[in-house]
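Page 47, continued from p. 46.
Same chain as before, 261 aa.
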Amino acid sequence: MDGTPTLEDFRKDETLFFDFLEYFFKYKPRNYQKKFLLACLKNKRIAGKWCRQSGKSYSLAHYDLFRCVIAPTTIIITAPTLTHSTELYMKIRALVEGNELIKNEIEKLTATEMIFKNGSRIKALPTGTEGKSIRGFTADVVNLEEAGLVKDEIVNSVITPLIASKKDEGQIIKIGTPLTKNHFYRSCFLDDTYTVINVRWEDCVKENQYTIDFINEQKKNLTDIEFRTEYDAEFIEEMASFFPSKLIDSCMEDFNFIKFI
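Result:
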């Protein structure tokens, strides 16, 4: 790009996305992250089936912020618990607070919500056990963090309707590490409307996100099932799990933490 780019330059041309990331945040995505980000730019349904600590939330944080800056966009970040959903939100907030130009685009900033001067909004919410806390919201983009932990009925009856009024423009992005064969599994293997980005430990070693010594240590300390789930990003058959998925789902709950000052 010739000269010094402005926010208006990026608003006019989304092909400048990676220039945006580098210019404002000094962020150069790894190859697998770039593939994921390009999928987010071009597709309405994305499933990111990634191994642990591979940078999926960090990548998505940049995409969310880009969308909100270039045009009025409402993004709902949801996950089984508020802790999970605010983890991604806090990554976005850290990017904002680390750049004065972007920070000047913000009108309101709280622990779970960010409102931009152009009308964009990012809101972090937990699904809880029934999805009650996210009913009634409308979104252009839904980020489903730790997708494998969210119940099928919540996805079908609560999360998907968040984008109903957007017709063909609403976007759902599911990210997580594989667990049981629920909606996340179906999005990755059975639903051809989803673009799937799969990231395994070999990809991370190749891009220097992991070291081979770390992987060898994990192979030594984890069971085969644990390693295949966490680092090969594989969905393990129900019969290989000690606890059935329905029991795991029934034990999930979100709690409000009491903060002592």
